[in-house]
Write a sequence for this structure.
């Protein structure tokens, strides 16, 4: 039930359909965002709306897809999707995709469509995971295809290895996957950026093999505010094993402690104090309890 914003109109959920020959369904060229709205003292508010819209447009630009709407219209579409569905908290999925006018790999003559769906999705992981942390496995699938050429785009086609990695992790009794880059350095989770804390210094991979996460950026701001030194640099897998604390960040996962990687306990094997502090600051920010 509910309404989906589809090419400028709000249509009932069940009618928001595409043809089986939709180009993106066949070849995977499209781009999307994952956005959240939270309840704040001023009513429901979309966290970092403009940043998500900007990244969607950057992704489309990288893919050479011409967005048929302005940024203002895309912002407004997201606001409408939350409001018209009467949601107080929501996950939002804007997605730009190519139409069914033609097959083959030529894309310049295809129409670009845009949808924004919004639904209630309270927590990606259990509330327990937020407190106790999760078990992660380094994946046999890498982020290699995304490095350099495409890591700035949140493109549909970039998620094949992420999906394979996550499902492999779940099948082996873990909750998330850690993907390495082409050269074997730590890249990111299936849909999250990673941070580690060692000797009071926060480290996160530089932006060559991971998505330019909006939550990552918030965490870097909070760390600076707390006076925690931050290093954006290449991280090795074994540095995660011996970290004092480690956590993932993402719009869906929010701030998620990692308690174990590949069977090695990280730090005390539970949410560390710095993770807890940054997590608290993040929840305050999204709920409008801190200046934005
Ligand atoms: N890395 C990948 C591969 C993602 O899909 C996401 C989610 O969008 C992130 C990192 C985290 O980005 P953000 O904090 O902007 O949600």
């Amino acid at each position: 039930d509910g309404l989906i914003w589809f090419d400028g109109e709000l249509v009932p959920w069940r009618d928001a359909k595409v043809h089986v020959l939709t180009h993106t369904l066949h070849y995977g060229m499209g781009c999307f965002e994952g956005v959240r709205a939270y309840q704040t003292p001023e009513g429901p508010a979309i966290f970092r709306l403009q940043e998500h819209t900007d990244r969607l447009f950057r992704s489309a630009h990288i893919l050479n897809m011409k967005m048929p709407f302005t940024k203002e219209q895309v912002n407004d579409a997201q606001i409408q999707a939350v409001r018209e569905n009467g949601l107080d908290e929501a996950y939002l999925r804007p997605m730009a995709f190519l139409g069914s006018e033609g097959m083959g790999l030529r894309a310049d003559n295809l129409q670009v469509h845009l949808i924004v769906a919004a639904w209630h999705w309270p927590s990606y992981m259990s509330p327990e995971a937020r407190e106790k942390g999760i078990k992660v496995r380094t994946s046999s699938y890498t982020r290699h295809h995304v490095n350099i050429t495409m890591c700035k785009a949140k493109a549909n086609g970039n998620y094949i290895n992420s999906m394979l990695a996550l499902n492999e992790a779940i099948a082996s009794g873990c909750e998330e996957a850690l993907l390495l880059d082409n050269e074997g350095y730590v890249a990111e989770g299936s849909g999250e950026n990673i941070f580690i804390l060692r000797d009071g210094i926060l480290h996160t991979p530089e932006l060559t093999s991971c998505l330019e996460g909006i939550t990552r950026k918030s965490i870097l701001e909070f760390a600076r505010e707390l006076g925690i030194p931050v290093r954006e640099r290449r991280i090795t897998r074994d540095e995660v094993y011996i970290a004092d604390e480690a956590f993932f960040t993402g719009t869906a996962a929010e701030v998620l402690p990692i308690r174990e990687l590949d069977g090695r306990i990280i730090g005390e094997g539970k949410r560390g104090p710095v993770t807890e502090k940054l997590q608290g600051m993040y929840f305050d920010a999204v709920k409008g309890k801190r200046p934005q």
